[in-house]
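User: Structure please.
Assistant: Input sequence and predicted structure:
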Amino acid sequence: MRSEKKPTLYWSLLKYKHWNFFIASTSKGLVFVGSQNKPFEELSEWAKKRFPGSPLVEVGEKLEPFAIEIIEYLDGKRQTFTVPFDYNGTPFQMAVWNALCKIPYGQTKSYSEIANDINKPAAVRAVGTAIGANPVLITVPCHRVVGKNGALTGYRGGLEMKTKLLELERQGYIQQ
């Protein structure tokens, strides 16, 4: 019996100004963007759940195209991402993550607006759960989702990271 080959996960620590987070990809595309200043365990624990048995290999060169676009974004020089993604989720999660990608740079939406966008107006809580499971922070802009009253709500990267990203976009948006 032939065992199915597990995809290799390539990873690197992205360090740029005051930003430090782990990123990972398969040969197909970006699969993980970590939280600000979190230890390697955030990536390794996530990989164990999402890619059980896949080797984690540090190869900075393989992650360079992703790092370049993320750095351009953090520099205020990029508003959308063109790198390939290789994220997997349930059909519901994929619908939510695709809806997040449609939120314009510098703008926000509420959880209920995202639920309406995917034609599941009663699924606000499930939308929140799907957003929390987003494996690629920044590039799939879950930081652009706020509470109905505009309040900053939970974020896997922490509220400080969410605040920084929204401020960065507001400044970049004003300069346009």
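The first strand starts at residue 9 and ends at 16.
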